[in-house]
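Side project, low priority. Logging it here so it doesn't get lost.
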Amino acid sequence: MMRDEQMSTETPTQHETERPLALVTLPKESSRAHLTERFVREYEMRPEHATAIGRALVDPTAARRQLESPLIKRFPGGVAKFIIADVFTPMISVNPVNPRERERRAYPVSGMGGGAKNKTLTVEADGTNTALILTGDSPEHVEEILRDSAAHLRHQNASLGEDIGVDGALEPLTVALTEIRHRDGADKVVALTAMDGATRVSWCHQFTSFDSADVVYRLTRADPRIWRAELGRITAIQNRPLGETTFDERRAHRALVAQARILLSIEPVRPGEEVPSIVEAIRAILAEIHVAPPKGWPEGSQIDEIADKVLDLLLDTGRITESERNYLMGMIPPDQLKRHGFSVYPDVRAAKLLRVFHDERNNAVISAAVRGLGEKKRLAKDDKIKLAAELIMRPYRHMYRRPGNDLLVHAVRSAVQRTFTLPGVRKNTSWEISPRALEEARLTELRDAALAELRANPSSEELGATRLELGVLASYWLTATRALQRDTPQDTRGPSAIIVRMLRDERGIHQLYQVIVDGRHEPSNISRAARRVHLVEKNGEKQVDFIELAGGDYERVNDDWIRHSFHEAQSAPVPPKNLPPIDQMMELVRQATKHGRELKELMDKIVKVKDEHGDIIAERYGVPRPQEIDIEDVLRDVADNFRSWIRQHERTNRVITSSDEHLRGDEQVS
């Protein structure tokens, strides 16, 4: 029997006593058979579905009595029926489509993902609406996801494992039937899966020495005599004096059984009404636990659930087709997009998402999804862009997710949400996705039309349809590569204001065009694509070569360069006299820093100028001494002054820090 990880044999030190062992009796086969027959007869379950539930139950007789009065759980649009029963945790699967992990997994639209474990499974309802159908490439694909998910959940919740080892899994699970299918034609498997409580299940698998993939692919198919023998191995310690058992044995016994709410059926609120799908039911039930307080999923997972429900409702109401739903959801791999009639470019998909979410005809559907899954009563002003932005990020979001640290993905999300609020984008009548955007060869037409639009009315504050289209497409690549980020204390302009500034400048239009061209050239390598975006000179000509800088980096389009190159005329004013002296000084320091950056850029350009032999002119022939100023003395003075000021600042800070520590020490003593 396999295990996910090596178990510890140490006894716990954080608890004074362990919870006493409960007596666990393995059920009779006849009792289990009677229950499965009732599931088939009364709930119209398929025999393999009924068998999966029956095999997991500790006491089928007690569960059968609950069928007379099942637990009723209402959710928006329907009613869910459950029974509450003790289950054997080695017969419960971790959730391979756990919403908690969505941020770190690659969607098919990404065309990448670093291995099978990052490729998501598709989810739909089965024909009887009593089970979820999860589809993966192969058994090996699903096994890798199951093992990776279990290990990740344990790593993220180590303290929960310590509690389960001593007290068992005290909180009930929420489980549902899942049918796992494979695109390679391998046989399907049916298992009970923890929709809520997957972390508890993963720890129980660890303590009972069952591999989380083995649970699905071996135990669900095993002869009843085999799995009874394996469960009996754990319960056998009940027949020995407690003092003759080890902590690992007692921990395994406690982790063997957990209470669960088992989903049996989904029904309409009133007879004759449409029955909601099991996918929608589970989404709504879990949202009460994790989207609204107190137990929250990561921000991206919360928004994902609502965004997916919006697309499902748009499909149900006939606003989009199933193929369009899958495209917008990011479930179609890049190499299949053209075959389904969609553009292969992710910037076009981003533009389509914006148009769908800002289409006023879809307001009622979006409002219903937000009310149905969140704690909000009505649609807020920024909800649409938040939902669209999360879907826009799906080709690359997993690349910015770091284990135990969501700061980076949050920074990217914040920039995307702020960038796609361009003035005019929220009005679908103001712009559209033209045929020029769909073909790389015709992008020059889009650029030239944007230039013509600017030249026709250069003083207009309003952006025309062509420039908006160009700005939306370029915004995808700028935010995906982090070449454009959110505002900073030094430059308080939001990223959308930067895009607007570029669209009101001919050089900016040329640069945005170049961003799209270079982004599309190698979209599969988005993490490094920013270094491959050519800079555009003030005359609109791109630099032919990438200039290598110190440390092996390259001169490239990035947030600092964009903000510096497309600053507002009033962005560096002389400090007003009514500012405090310290603020006046800091403003002058910022101006000096800005001019230092400009000087550095000029120096970099000087060394690019070469003669007919390819030699750098400045290095081979030198430059004449400037007559207007002694440049060497000026630069030396600047360097000496800044070096002295910085050292003084560091000394002052050390003194202040030391004083604060003494003061804190005095306060503690007193």
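Brief comment: The two ends are 61 Å apart (CA to CA).
Revisit when time allows.
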